[in-house]
Amino acid sequence: MAKVVKAVRGMNDILPEEAHLWHFFEQTVHNWLALYGYSNIRTPVVEHTDLFVRSIGEVTDIVEKEMYSFVDHLNNDRLALRPEGTASCVRAAIEHNLLYGGPQRLAYSGPMFRHERPQKGRYRQFNQVGVEALGFSGPDIDAELIVMCTRLWQMLGITGLRLEIGTLGSAESRAIHRARLIKYFEQHVKHLDEDANRRLHANPLRILDSKNPEMQPVIEQAPRLIDDLDESSRIHFETLQQLLREQGVQFEINLRLVRGLDYYNRTVFEWITDKLGAQGTVCAGGRYDGLIAQIGGRPAPACGFAMGVERLMALMHECGKEIARSVPDVYIVHQGEQATSFAWKTAELLRESGCQVILHCGGGSFKSQMKKADASGARFAVIIGDDEAVMQVVTLKPLREVADQVRIDLNTLSDLIKAKN
Length: 421
Known about the structure:
Structural class: alpha+beta
Oligomer: single chain
Number of helices: 15
CATH class of the largest domain: Alpha Beta
Distance between the termini: 48 Å
CATH topology of the largest domain: BirA Bifunctional Protein, domain 2
Mean pLDDT: 88
CATH superfamily of the largest domain: Bira Bifunctional Protein, Domain 2
Shape: elongated
Number of strands: 16
Strand order of the largest sheet: 1-5-6-11-10-9-7-8
Largest sheet: 8 strands, mixed
Number of domains: 2
């Protein structure tokens, strides 16, 4: 036998028994985005590597360790599988002049790729839904994004999420804070691990995001960015808090909230759960006012977030959310040459009327076909033999209730099925 080819590690199949949950999630997200006026944008899975190096930051885990980057041997382009969606969305907005007509509310969904150690809630190919509000400068859009999330959690039946918010200030205030951080960590260099030492002068803010437990006491005593905030960033953050309180959104202020991408400024936030073990962040985002100019566009403010679909669906399961699997209305059982021809006609007429129909294929006795009809979950079996075909009628048998089967013509079949549904 030939060797079985399996899926790449960390890149998972979504099987039919799981697909109904994905469909529910995707339909819910579609309806939710429409409530807030967000338009769909779809970008390529492959982008130029430089896009992510310039946007995410060269001294970040994503670019240094996780990004699938390669050289296209046909033209020597350096390409990458997208590790996140914001940079691609902003690139598309610049390339197609989307901001020419004013601010844009955009949303995307699809697979992202990072070379990480696969574990529950963390995969090498994973799916995200992202929302980007381009061209809006005030804290009101920051608040709207967060309020949007609270509504989605309600629509998905998710409970127990904790919201943490913080601020990274302006580029100027971060430059001041960066100098203070470098000076502080230089005094505690013996307590820094290899990654922190490497990033000390290149990107000291990343040290604050370290999960190394041995470094936490040093990190806790590090200078706080909020103490270096410029006045406009302070007002922006205070106004955001006020808007959230007015909308009844509970939050915690996390002054060490950094995020793993370099393009953020001012508002940052994360939605966190304790129900998924180590992979607790299910949705995160913030403001990135400098990114559009950074990758070649005219300067414009922006804010957004992304959520991990697999983590959210795992959380839905933990919260006891049950989604009924879609089942057909009718399973058509048939035997005989004339019966088969009439069965095809019956199936298409029922589908035209909006009924979900499985037409039995593969032959077999009536008994074996009826077993498959029952296993399909269909509410009704439509039974057709040559006698029915000659008379242009069918036998309708209820499968989920105690009731007599009836013989009826095609003109009343779909009406009767709809009435019973």
